Amino acid sequence: MDVSWEDFGWERLADGVGRRRLPVWDATVGLVAGRDAVLLFDTGSTLREGAAIRAQTEALTGGRRVTHIALSHPHFDHVLGTAAFSGAQVYGAVGVDALMRRERDAIRADAVREGLDAAEAGESVDLMVIPQHGVFGEQTLDLGGRQVLLANVGPGHTGHDLALLAPGSPEVVFCGDLVEESGEPQAGPDAIASRWPAALDRLLALGGDDAVYVPGHGAVVDAAFVRRQRDELARRFGVS
C-alpha cells in the first residue's frame, strides 16, 4: 500500500483506508485493504463507473481484487457499479435485497431523472447485483490483520442505511448519505425523517469524538460536524 493514492484520484485516510469522490454526483466510494481481503464501500452509479473503480482499486492494491462490498443504501449513484466486481460478497442493511428487487424500475427511473443516459441506466439496472448478506445490528468482517465493522444504523436517509467502521489511527467511519457535506442532506420520498437524528447518534457512538467521518457526498468531516448536522436535521424535521 505504498503507492500514492492521489495519483489515482483517491484520498488516503489511514493505512490501507481511502476514498474517492466520483464525478457528476460527487458520491463517495471507500476502500479498506487487509492482508487477505479487500472491501469496497459503495460502487458508483453505472457498470462503466464500477469498471473504472475496479481498475483503480487493483492498481492501489497491487493487482488484488475486491472481495467484499458494502452498500450504504439503495440509491442508484451508490450501487449500480457492483456488477463490475464479479465474485465479491455483497452486504447491505437487512431488507435492502427485497427492496432492490422490487424497485428496479424506480431505481432506473431515478437514475434517468437525475441525468443518466437511459440506455446506460437500463443496462446497469438489468445487471444490478442484489446483496447476498443482510446486516441486522452489527457484523464484523475479518480482512486479514484488519477487522472492520458493518453497522445497520438506519433508518434515516432511507429505510436501509449501512455504515462502516474501519478501526485504526485514526478510526474512519463511512457514513453513506446519512451525512452530507457538499450540500443539505437530501430527504427523498424514501427518507425516514423522524428516525434520521437517531441514526446520526448511532454513527457518533460508533466512531466517537476522534474518528474521521466520510460523508456520502462532500469532504471528510469530524464528529462536531456530524453532531451539528444531527441537530439541524432534528430542527428541520421537528424531532428530538
Give the neighbour order of strands across the main sheet.
Answer: 1-2-3-4-5-6-7
Structural class: alpha/beta
Low-confidence stretches: none
Q: How can the largest sheet be summarized?
A: 7 strands, mixed
Query: What average pLDDT do the residues reach?
Result: 97
The general outline is globular
Helix content class: 25-40%
Helix and strand run: EEEEHEHEHHHEEEEEHEH
Tally of helical runs: 7
* Gyration radius, in Å: 16 Å
Which percent range describes the beta-strand content? 25-35%
**Straight-line N-to-C gap:** 43 Å
Instruction: Give the beta-strand count.
Output: 12
What's the layout of helices and strands?
Elements: E1 11-14, E2 17-21, E3 28-33, E4 38-41, H1 47-60, E5 68-70, H2 76-79, E6 89-93, H3 96-102, H4 104-113, H5 118-126, E7 133-135, E8 138-142, E9 147-152, E10 162-166, E11 172-180, H6 196-207, E12 212-217, H7 223-237
Parallel strand pairs: 4-5, 5-6, 6-7, 11-12
Antiparallel strand pairs: 1-2, 2-3, 3-4, 8-9, 9-10, 10-11
Helix pairs in contact: 4-5, 6-7
